[in-house]
Amino acid sequence: MRVFHLSAECYPVAKVGGLADVVGALPKYQNMLGLQAAVVMPYYDRKFVHENEFEVVFKASSLLGIRRFYFEILKESTDKLGFELYLVRIPGLLDRENVYGYPDETEQFIAFQIAFLDWINWSQQSPDLIHCHDHHSGLVPFLLYHSKLYTRLANIPTIFTIHNGQYHGAFGWDKLSYLPEIDLTQTGLLDWNGGINPLAAAVKCCWRYTTVSPSYLEELTINSNGLEYLFYIERAKGFGIINGIDTQIWNPKTDSMIAEKYSLKQLTAGKQKNKEALCSRFGLSSDKPLVSFIGRLVVEKGADLLAEAIKKSILLHPDGINFFILGAGDIPVQEELLELKEKYPKQCNVYIGYDEALAHLVYAGSDFLLMPSRVEPCGLNQLYALRYGTIPVVRATGGLKDTVIDFGEEGGYGIRFIQPNVNDMVHALDRAAKLYETTPHLQLLRKRMMALDFSWDRSALEYINLYESLKPAI
Ligand code: ADP
Ligand code: GLC
C-alpha cells in the first residue's frame, strides 16, 4: 500500500516540535513493516535542503484565487531518511526559512495543498491513501471529495491525525476564492462558527481521524478551542493512537549528542557524567537533584507557572534542588525566567532558544523532567526522558496521563499531579526532592523506566491496521 503523509514539519528537514519527530519516524517504521510510506511537505530554505541532493520530479503552475503560482516537486535523491521525501517548492510562498509565523500563512498552506493535489492528479503518483497531519493539510480531504478538479482521486481514503486541536488554521470566507473550483452546495463542510476552519473541515470530511493519545480523543470533546461539539458528534470515527519514539535517534547507548553514552548497566555512572557536563556548562551543582524543562514557553505547556513554582521550590529546599529550562516562546514568560536566573544563579539556569543537541544532553543529564502542561495531546519529552532514565514529573493530562504511572502505584515510575497550578507543582517537586534522597528507590525506578518500550513498532502497526480496515474501499 502506498501512503503519502502530508505535514508542515518533518525531522530532520524542519522541526518546530513533536509533529516533526512523529512525521520523521512513523513512515520509516511503517516502511519496515512493508508499507510504502512517503512524506510530502513544504520546501523551507534550511540546512537540510542545502546539504542534500534533490531532483525535480514535477513542475507546473496553478491558481490561488486570481494569482498564478509556479511550483515544483523535489524528491530527495537517496531516500536516506527511510522514506521518500518530497518537497513542494513555490517561489514567493514556500521557499522561506521559518515553518510558521508569516502573515500570509493561510495562502502558503492553501497553495501547498493545491500543488500537492495537482501533482498527484496530473502525474502517475496516485497513492492508495493520504494521511494528513494537523490543519496545514486539513483542506485536502474536502478538496479531494468536493472539487470537480480532482474527481479522478475522489476514491482515495484520507486519515487525519490531530497533533494539536488548539490550532485550527481558520480564516474568513473572503478567502474562499483561493480554493479551486468546489461544489458550492457543500461549503457547510468548510464552515465552523462563521469562518473556514481547516481542522473542522478535515474532521468532517476525512474517512477516519486519529489523535496522538487515547485520552486526548476524549479531551477534545471538552477542550478544543471551540470545536468541542464537532468532536462530540464525530466521535465514532475517531481513534486514539499513542505516539512512539524513534529509538534509533533517541538512544543513550549510541547518542552522539550527549557527553557520555550509557546503557542500563552503566546507568548511574553514565547519567552522572552527563549531569556533570550539563551542570558545569550552566553553573549548577551536579550533586543536587536537577529538574529540567524543555519546550515551547507557552500557556498550553504550563510554562507561565514555571517561574513561581521554581521560586517556591527553591525557598522550600534552599540548598537542595536545581533547575534548568531550555525553551523559547511567550516574551513575558521568558522574562520572568531570566529574572529568576538572575536572582538564584546557583540553583536555576535558563537557555532561551532552540538547540537540538542541548536537548539530548538535558534528557541524559537531568534527574527529573518537568511537564506541567495544561494541554498535551501526546508529549514526546516524557518518552525521551524515560528512555534516558530521567523521571518525568507530569500533570496528568492527554498523553502524559496515558504514558506516565505515578511511582506510588504498582509498577509506577514517574510523578504525576492533577491540577495545573503552582501548589500542585511545588508538591510534586517536593516529592521529587525526597525521592532523590532515597538512592536505591531512585535507581529501581530508573531501571524500570529504561526497560519500557515506547518505540514506534506497536503504534506504526496500529496505523497500518487502521489503513487496512479501509481496504475494501482501497
Ligand atoms: P510540542 O510538539 O507540543 O512542542 P512534544 O513533547 O510533542 O511537544 O515535542 C517537543 C519536541 O521538541 C521534542 O523533541 C523536544 O525535545 C523538542 N524541543 C522543544 N523545545 C525545544 C528547544 N527549545 N530546544 C530543543 N528541542 C526542543
Ligand atoms: C503536538 C502536541 C504534542 C505531541 C506532538 C506530536 O505538537 O502538542 O503533545 O506530542 O504534537 O504528536
Please render the helix and strand layout as text.
Blueprint: E1 2-6, H1 18-32, E2 36-42, H2 47-51, E3 54-64, E4 67-76, E5 84-89, H3 105-122, E6 129-133, H4 140-146, E7 158-162, E8 191-192, E9 195-196, H5 198-205, E10 208-211, H6 214-219, H7 228-233, E11 238-240, H8 267-282, E12 290-297, H9 306-316, E13 322-329, H10 331-343, E14 348-352, H11 356-365, E15 368-371, H12 381-387, E16 391-395, H13 398-403, E17 415-417, H14 422-437, H15 439-450, H16 456-469
Parallel strand pairs: 1-2, 1-6, 2-5, 6-7, 7-10, 10-11, 12-13, 12-15, 13-14, 15-16, 16-17
Antiparallel strand pairs: 3-4, 4-5, 8-9
Helix pairs in contact: 1-16, 4-5, 8-11, 9-10, 9-14
The protein binds adenosine-5'-diphosphate and alpha-D-glucopyranose (GLC).
Notable characteristics:
20% strand, 474 residues, binds adenosine-5'-diphosphate, 6-stranded parallel sheet, Rossmann fold, 16 helices, 2 domains, alpha/beta, binds alpha-D-glucopyranose
Structure write-up:
The model has no long low-confidence stretch (mean pLDDT 97). The chain folds into 2 domains: 260 residues, 3-Layer(aba) Sandwich (Rossmann fold), CATH 3.40.50; 188 residues, Glycogen Phosphorylase B (Rossmann fold). The protein has a 9-stranded mixed β-sheet, sandwiched between helices. It starts with a strand and ends in a 5-residue tail after the last helix. By secondary structure, it is α/β, with parallel strands linked by helices. Alpha-D-glucopyranose (GLC) binds next to helix 1.
